[in-house]
Amino acid sequence: MILTNNSLGNISYNKTKKVSSMKLTLIGNGVMAQALAKGLVKNYEVEILGRSITKLKAVQELIPEITIKELDDNENIEGKNIILCVKPYALESVSARLIGKANAIYSVLAGTTIETLKSQIQASSYVRTMPNVAASYSSSMTTITGDKSLKLQAKEIFSNIGDVVWVDTENQLDIATAIAGSGPAFLALIAEAMTDGGVKAGLDRATTSKLVHGTFNGISKLLENQHPALIKDSVMSPGGTTAAGIEALEENGARNAMIKAINSAYEKACQLGKK
After folding, report:
1. Higher pLDDT, 34 or 275
2. Of 64, 63, 56, which Cα lies nearest the Cα of 30?
3. What does the mean pLDDT of the chain come to?
4. Collapsing DSSP states into helix, strand and coil, what is residue 47?
5. Cβ neighbours around 108 below 10 Å, total
């Protein structure tokens, strides 16, 4: 069953936008699949396959430019370029429905090795990627590894949703998963805590939220040009407010907690790969 949105507005939009001749088929319709689709539809024909037509219709309402299709029991993926966006635990049940040999598999499954992918799905080439949820705003930091024959194509595809980094090994990708894949959640926790801190001190939440948002935007630009330690030192005046705050962070183990968070996420990615 295939549903497309054929409203006049969408026909007009499709005529004017530049679309690559390559069609990308996303299997899965969760948060990451939706984030990827929002970024990729600008330059690619995007199809999303899922097991629930009701959920797929809801996704198409959010992203009218996509095509949706309910995943068949014998879904033919012959020659397709697949972006696999299911949960790692669902790989076996989903792959059991796929027949044929795909052209390329781009997997966003955390901790799932290329060896495992090869044992589950037939394809000419395999690539592991780790984008993050900022893909929906074309601001993902995506790490990629796998068959080098797909290196340029993979970088081209995922550069449509933000910055990309190619690494040489799957272990390096697992480390990158902990930083760039899980990182948005870690930073969101910090942003939430900073907002709560401002409210506790007496500032209203709307104003505090705007200040935190602006601060995160600013530090992103600074980090492109300066080492984090130099940024800290430039703000930390002797005996000043920042020095007092840094002291509190160090006393409460903020630095150590973040190091442990990255390493715990990395270890979890490795554990997933062994299942």
Report:
1. 34
2. 56
3. 90
4. strand
5. 26
Per CATH, which fold does 2-168 belong to? Rossmann fold (3.40.50)
- At which residue do the structure tokens 């492109």 appear? 224
- Is the sign of the CA dihedral 92, 93, 99, 102 positive or negative? negative
- Taken as a whole, the chain contains a residue count of 275
**pLDDT value at 186 more than 70:** yes
Q: What gap in Å lies between CA 65 and CA 23, rounded to an integer?
A: 13
Q: What is the DSSP secondary-structure string of 231-242?
A: HHHHH--TTSHH
Helix 254-274 and helix 241-251, axial crossing angle in degrees, nearest 10: 50
Tens digits of residue pLDDT in 75-110: 999 999 999 999 988 999 999 999 999 999 999 998
Place of tokens 């000043």: 240
The residues near 254 (Cβ < 8 Å, ≥ 6 apart) are none
User: How many whole angstroms separate alpha carbon 51 and alpha carbon 72?
Assistant: 8
For residue range 212-259, what is the model confidence (pLDDT) as tens digits? 999 999 999 999 999 999 999 999 999 999 999 999 999 999 999 999
Q: Which class for 102: exposed (0-12), middle (13-18), buried (19 or more C-beta within 10 A)?
A: buried
Domain boundaries, the chain: 2-168, 184-274
Q: Contact at 8 Å (CB) between 47 and 24?
A: yes
Q: Which of 172, 146, 143 is nearest to 159 (CA)?
A: 143
pTM: 0.81
184 touches 133 (CB < 8 A):
yes
Q: Are the C-beta atoms of residues 6 and 14 closer than 8 Å to each other?
A: no
What is the CATH number assigned to the segment(s) 184-274?
Answer: 1.10.3730.10
